[in-house]
Every structure is written in structure tokens, then in C-alpha cells.
Amino acid sequence: MKFFVYHTPELAPANILPDCAIVVDVLRATTTIATALNVGAEAVQVFSDIDQLMQVSEKWPADKRIRVGERGGAMVDGFDLGNSPLSCTPEVVKGKRLFMTTTNGTRSLERVQAAAVVLTAAFINRRAIVEYLMTKTPETVWVLGSGWEGNFSLEDTACAGAIAQNLVNEMGYPLDDFAGNDEVFAAISLYLQWQNNLFELLNHASHGQRLLRLGSYEDLKYCAQTDILDVLPMQKEPGVIVKSDIKKQSLQFWMEAPKT
Ligand code: 3SL
Fold first, then answer.
1. How far is the C-alpha of 76 from the C-alpha of 123, rounded, in Å?
2. Which helix (H) or strand (E) holds 27?
3. How many other C-beta atoms are found inside a 10 Å radius of the C-beta of residue 204?
4. DSSP state of 117
5. Measured in angstroms, how far is the CA atom of residue 239 from the centroid of ligand 1?
6. 39 alpha carbon – ligand 1 mean position (Å)
7. How far apart are CA 52 and CA 50, in angstroms?
8. What predicted TM-score, i.e. pTM, was given to this entire model?
């Protein structure tokens, strides 16, 4: 496995795609996606463009859709929810499709949506992602941070490092063979520095500070937790992310396979 980290979608190479692309937007799109799917949302369909979201969601039954969106951290006018993962309770989202648009996370998803496998990751579902990679061992893996309007964000690269570090530990890969670019070393170092203080890291992050100004302290606390949800969000068709059970089937196969 060759593992690459790109801090933002703009930094990923053009015209090629990996076997498996993992999009990260810890604050907050991919944390919200994992949370919504974990409590029974039917799917999350992502759009970078608000008008396109309105057109597509208009055709969906009104009682089965929720429009979720933010710009600059604040809820889009006329939408049902902003992008807080804490709004995604079973009462609100179970059985429904979330039509989501966000400033950065949905753009990253669009950048890699043609890859063979597209997953979304955050700290809260890091372990589910690692288990998938351990069982499927794709040849090339990209972790794509979402950043903020083209700029680096601490939390996304730290999450990429959390995935890489856990994988290297579990699989015993020599780091020099595993790392496809220098960013992998940087991401692991960042994670190791902050792994026991992720909430503090999110408080230092520029988007964390933006969210705190908007009153989202509880969101930051929630997004800073590691491995609390066993959910694997996977794209089933371009832009449509569902909860996959592939990870469980594969892990069971891996554990039961006769050792040679
Ligand atoms: O930029 C994004 O995609 C968002 O997740 C930003 S926010 O945290 O919802 O404001």
C-alpha cells in the first residue's frame, strides 16, 4: 500500500486518482456525515453548489429529505439544518436523505468522486477506516484534507496522521515504504504531538476559532473524540454516501481465514 496525504483538494495531482480516496473534514462535514449515517440516515448526498442541491432535492419526497448546509460556518437561509453533527439525532435524520452543501468538505468530495472507492473520515470514525484499509489493502490511498478555502487546516492533517499512524502500527509497515509523500510524515508527527489533546488542537485551529465565535463549543468537543463510532461512510454513486457494511464482512473473513 502507498499512502499519500494532501492537505487540501487543490494540492492533489490532477488527472489521476487513487484506488481509494478518503476525504476528511473534521470541522465538520465528515464528522456530520459519520454521525448522520450512524443514527440511520438513508444517505448523505453532497453538492458544492446550492442551486443544484435545491433542484435535485426538490424531486425527493419532502418527508424524506433534510437540507443541510453552511457557508462560513452559519446555516444556509431556508435550510433545515446547519452543519452541526449534534443536530443529527435519530429523531431528526433516521430514514431520511441529507442533501448537504458546505464550504470546503463537499468540494473535496467532488474532487475525488470518480475514484473506485471513496470514503469519508473524521476522528470519530477513524478506526472503521483503518479496519477497512487493513482488510482491503488498496494499492494507492489518498487522504484528502478539506482545509479552508484552499488553505491548510490543522485538524484535517492531524486526522490523516491518526489514520496513518494507526495503520502503520497495526500492519507493521516500514514507514519509508508506506509513505507516498512527505506529507505523511508531517501528518503523523502532528497527530503524535496532539493525540492526547485533540480538543485543544481544535481550539487552536483557525476554523475551530471561527466555530467558537459562532457558539459551537459543543461541536468542537464532539469532533475531537476518537473512535467513538463504528461507521464506514462510502460513496455508492457519485456524490451519494451511505453506511457500508463491507468493513465488517471483510474483517470477519480476515479473522477467520486459515493462516498459511
Ligand atoms: O467547510 C466545510 O465543509 C464545513 O464543514 C465547515 S463548517 O464546520 O460546517 O462550518
1. 25
2. none
3. 12
4. E
5. 17
6. 20
7. 5
8. 0.94
